[in-house]
Amino acid sequence: MKDSRKKSRRHDKAVKAAYNLLVSYRKLIEEKGQDEYAAEIESAYKDLWCECLNEKTPW
What we know:
mainly alpha
């Protein structure tokens, strides 16, 4: 049981790291004026968060 909790924490940490990376990438794309791509990236990171974590969404 202890191992499954450890795996879960690592999973959540990896998902949050990927989420933060995608948020940063979206901001970079927005700065370049590519709003269509930024919207796609935003959708992807929101899906990632909702599908992988059982937490309240940060937005």
